[in-house]
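Re: Re: token formats

Sure, here are both.
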Amino acid sequence: MNRLIFLLAAAPLLAHDLYMMPEQFVVKPGAALRVVFQNGDEFPEASSPTKPERLRDTKLVSSAGAVAFENIAAHERNTTATVKAPSSGLGILTARTIPNFIELDPAKFKLYLEHENLTATLKWREQHKETGKPGREIYSKYVKSIVLAGKSDGRHAERTGLTIEIVPEADPYSLKPGAELPVLLLFRGKPAADVAVESAWLEKGKAVMEVFGRTDAHGRIRIPIKATGPHRLHAIVMERHADASKADWESFWASLTFAIR
């Protein structure tokens, strides 16, 4: 819980996570599903809307194909959309944002890197004597959510082609508290090694957030499941930007939401 307190205190200084929270994770087949984009570090609700014009590839993919989101609209604290639920099986909801630029002073950038466990970037800046320079960064976000309509059809591990993607290698809807969820982190279609993965869930109605480790050499990590209800996984890959005239760094944010029954 100390990590959550630190996170909320630091949130005004840092970029925010973006994740989808369907109003229902287990849905009636073919029903209209309302999807909420949460932009912020709180869970399961966040603090600010995402501009609809920054969203791309908003869709639900199922055995029947892809269906685009509709009625995307920003509100005071979030952004919402609607989409038709699958007629059966698992539905994978996806979206991404167009890249955006941010510049932080050296102290705030260091705090952000430490907070997000971006140790390679911290070490690079130290080795190249750039700790006194502002952090000039381009970032984009890639969000997924998995819903269940009727009986699962085993599509949980389907890859969607997002630039960075958290792929569950077991069906979350088959798991109970006490189990582990094996996940694969992909970056540009390849396993992403040594990346911190954070899990968020609710215990007695209060959010708990914990980094359970870093992905192994094959991009994999096992996430302990500690409660029923909604869950959010979060990971970031950061690399040097190819064009130093535009930015020094580029980050790619991934999130995955699902529910444990």
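Second one below.
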Amino acid sequence: MLNFDSTHKSVDGNVNKIDGKKLFKRIVAIGLIIANLTTFCACAKTVPCDIEEDHAHFYVTQEDVGRYIMSEKEYVKGLERTDNYIEVNEEDTELLEYMNKHDLFKIEDNRDTIEDIEKQDEDYTEYRYKYIYMQPIPVVHSTGKSSFVTYYYVPMPRYSWTTDTTRNLTGETRTCHHMYYGYKVTQDANGKYHMEKSELVDDLMELPSEYEYVGKNFTTIVNLENKEALDYEDGKEDDIGDKEVEQMMQEVDVREAEEDYSKTN
């Protein structure tokens, strides 16, 4: 149901005629879709096209990931029009509209580009480090009708992760690993389309066949050891005790700042 019944063509390919009633019906549907699409590209130029049949051109991102869109504009939603196209029927136009609305790209139409992107996504190492955060503590002062606030700053230890080996490293490391996800698009009994996100996989080509689509961003980076999302503020509360905090407070200048909140006569 969700596979296009037309083959890829170029502007030099042969086209077939369709009867007048079907042509009129499709023109009405296409007109509505193009009206919606043009809201995304009002300033884009229209590219001349002499293809008479219902068709959709292939539009690509700067990374050459693309999808078919029923438009003759030079650009749609930041995607650039190419001369490649497919002939479409009424069901195709509805699916294409849904894909355009949700920024979906068919994996099969972008297999080579996706494989190239995945090849560049190499694992890398991050290092845990400790840093000092100056926690502001407000103190409100009131004198008669006037009041103001002063702050003193308490140095507190925090932890994060970096690829910079010159930081105050703790000796802990982790391997950052790229994983990918796609979407399954289904159609209910009322003809309405729905999308469902897949589990993370190491290669999009490993997805079950029903997960045919990806979004503009189909990559997430996880900790290779546990496959969990990276946490960049994961300090351990028991890494430092009260004595060390007291020592740091003696070594770090405590800064104060005053701010008048309100003064009345």
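Residues 1-7, 10-42, 236-242, 248-265 have pLDDT under 50 and may be disordered. The first helix runs from residue 20 to 37.
- S.
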